[in-house]
C-alpha cells in the first residue's frame, strides 16, 4: 500500500483528501503545518508527499528543502497563490510536480499516480522511446527516419525523455544543459525547443509530446 503524507492547513481539504486517497487504497497521514510535516515524514516514511506551499509556520518551499536534505521521496506541491514564482521555487528546491488550487481531485490523483509510477520504475528506464512517429535510442543516440540532432538538442531531449510526465523547470533545464551561469537565459529554451518540435512533432505548432507549461518549464508526454 502506497503511503501518502498530505500537508495542508485547511481542515476541510485535509479531510477530503484523506477520504479520497483512502478510498483508493492509499495509506494516509496528515499534517497541518510545516513543522508537523517534517516530523511526520521522519516517522511515517511516506512514498509520496502532497504539500501545500501556503503553510502557517514554515513556507512550503522551505519544507521541500528540509525534506530534500535527507530523502528523495516524490513531492507534489499545491498552490493557491497567484503567479508562478512560488511553484518555480518549489520545483527548483526539488519538488516533482505541482497542482494549482482550486483543483479537481482527479487531476491531483493523476499527478500522484504519475510521480509514484516514475519513482517505482526509476531503476528500469527504457532506452528506446517513441516520440510521435519516431523511435529515439538514448544509448546509440539515434532517431528513426534519419533525424539528426545537435549535441545541445540531444541533452534537452534526453532530460525530458528520462523523466516522462515530469515537469522540468526552466532553471533545471538551463542548468543541466548549459550550466549554472545560464540559469536565466530562457530565450535559449524557446529557440531549441522549437527546433526539436520541427524535427520530432507531427504538427510542431500543436505539439503532442514536447509540451510547454508557460512560465514554468517543459514536460514530455508519451
Q: How are the elements arranged and paired?
A:
Blueprint: E1 3-7, H1 11-23, E2 27-31, H2 34-44, E3 48-52, H3 60-68, E4 75-79, H4 85-93, E5 97-100, H5 105-120, E6 128-131, E7 134-137, E8 142-143, H6 151-161, E9 167-169, H7 170-177, H8 186-200, E10 210-213, E11 217-220
Domain Response regulatory: 3-116
Keywords: DNA-binding, Phosphoprotein
Pfam families: Response_reg, Trans_reg_C
Secondary structure category: alpha/beta
Low-confidence stretches: none
Shape: elongated
The total beta strand count reads 11
Instruction: Specify Rg, calculated over alpha carbons.
Output: 18 Å
Helix content: 40-55%
Q: What is the distance, rounded to the nearest whole angstrom, between the alpha carbons of the first and last residues?
A: 26 Å
Mean pLDDT: 90
How many helices? The count is 8
Major beta sheet, strand line-up:
2-1-3-4-5
Order of helices and strands: EHEHEHEHEHEEEHEHHEE
Strand count, sense and closure of the main sheet? 5 strands, parallel
Relative strand content: 15-25%
Amino acid at each position: 500500500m502506497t503511503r501518502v503524507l498530505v500537508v495542508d492547513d485547511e481542515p476541510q481539504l485535509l479531510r477530503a483528501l484523506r477520504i479520497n486517497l483512502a478510498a483508493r487504497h492509499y495509506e494516509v497521514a496528515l499534517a497541518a503545518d510545516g513543522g508537523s510535516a517534517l516530523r511526520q515524514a521522519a516517522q511515517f516514511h511516506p512514498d509520496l508527499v502532497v504539500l501545500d506551499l501556503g503553510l502557517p509556520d514554515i513556507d512550503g518551499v522551505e519544507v521541500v528543502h528540509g525534506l530534500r536534505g535527507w530523502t528523495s521521496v516524490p513531492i507534489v506541491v499545491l498552490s493557491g497563490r497567484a503567479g508562478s514564482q512560488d511553484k518555480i521555487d518549489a520545483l527548483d528546491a526539488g519538488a516533482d510536480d505541482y497542482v494549482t488550487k482550486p483543483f479537481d481531485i482527479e487531476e491531483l490523483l493523476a499527478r500522484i499516480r504519475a510521480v509514484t509510477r516514475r519513482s517505482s520504475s526509476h531503476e528500469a528506464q527504457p532506452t528506446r522511446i517513441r516520440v510521435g512517429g519516431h523511435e529515439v535510442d538514448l544509448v546509440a543516440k539515434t532517431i528513426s527516419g534519419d533525424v539528426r540532432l545537435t549535441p545541445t538538442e540531444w541533452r534537452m531531449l534526453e532530460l525530458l525523455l528520462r523523466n516522462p510526465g515530469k515537469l522540468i523547470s526552466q532553471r533545471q533545464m538551463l542548468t543541466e544543459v548549459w550550466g549554472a551561469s545560464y540559469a536565466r537565459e530562457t530565450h535559449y529554451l524557446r529557440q531549441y525547443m522549437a527546433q526539436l518540435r520541427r524535427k520530432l512533432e507531427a504538427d510542431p505548432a500543436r505539439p503532442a509530446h514536447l509540451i510547454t507549461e508557460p512560465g514554468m518549464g517543459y514536460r514530455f508526454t508519451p
